[in-house]
Amino acid sequence: MPISAFPRPRFPDIYQPRAIMPDLGRCPCFPHAQVEWVASRLGDTADKLEPIDSDTCRLSGQSDSLEWLVFRLVMLGCEFEVHGPPELVDYLREMAARTLRAVEDRN
User: Fold this and answer.
1) What mean pLDDT, rounded, does the chain reach?
2) Which CATH architecture fits 19-102?
């Protein structure tokens, strides 16, 4: 049977693209780690990293979506701060709540 014969699954809204975020300049992101370490974790990207102090930097650049930006921040493996925009803050809160619910004690 050809693969086209199988119905495509309907993904929950979480998998649908949200607001496109072409400019991280309006999404201040501050990883709490040295610039060199963050750069090694991000790999070869078009992002710009600026040192703030010895243990904090500012991440700016471009991202396709809120999801991609949040994924990259979480996968850095360090503490970080965001100061806006509200859509990014709300999405981070939503993802944090979903993650906590995934590990709640079910007994």
Assistant:
1) 80
2) 2-Layer Sandwich (3.30)
Determine contact, residues 28/52, Cβ cutoff 8 Å: no
The full set of domain ranges for the chain reads 19-102
pLDDT at 88 over 80: yes
pLDDT value of residue 28 = 80
Listed in sequence order, the residues at least 6 apart from 85 whose beta carbon sits closer than 8 Å to its beta carbon are 26, 27
Task: Give the whole-angstrom CA distance, residue 78 versus residue 10.
Answer: 34
Q: Return the structure tokens found at 5.
A: 């014969």
Distance CA 24, CA 69 (A): 9
β-bridge mates for residue 57, sequence order: 51
Q: Which of 10-14, 23-27, 53-57, 60-64 has the lowest mean pLDDT?
A: 10-14
Output the pTM of the full model. Answer: 0.70
Cα–Cα nearest to 69, from 83, 57, 59: 59
